[in-house]
Design goal:
Strand order of the largest sheet: 1-2-3-4
Number of strands: 4
Strand content: 15-25%
Oligomer: single chain
Order of helices and strands: HEEEHEHH
Number of helices: 4
Radius of gyration: 13 Å
Helix content: 25-40%
Length: about 100
């Protein structure tokens, strides 16, 4: 079982993220997790389905992800990307910790 990022952050005494944070109204884009009050703000996108020809591994999905991430960066967000395996084994938390404590 994978411990959710929110609980991992709490256990590591890191700020808890906002799940499904809408960052660019009127666009409907959402980050999987975001720390919008950090300076600069931080976001985490967890890309599932990479091994099963899911949305993030098909042409249209990749292009939409690029558009979304480029817009986020233009708005000043630092965006981390991870896979479910990286969340499960702690690599995502390690990246979050480095970004927050930098």
């Amino acid at each position: 079982m994978t411990v959710p990022i929110t609980l991992q952050c709490r256990a590591a005494n890191l700020p808890e993220p906002v799940p499904e944070f809408r960052f660019a109204p009127p666009r409907r884009w959402r980050f999987d997790f975001a720390w919008p009050l950090l300076e600069p703000p931080l976001a985490l996108e967890v890309d599932g389905g990479g091994w099963i020809n899911g949305r993030h591994s098909r042409g249209t999905g990749i292009e939409k992800d690029c558009e979304k991430l480029n817009a986020a960066i233009a708005l000043g967000y630092r965006v981390l990307r991870a896979t479910p395996a990286m969340v499960k084994d702690g690599r995502a938390l390690a990246a979050i910790e480095k970004a927050i404590l930098r």
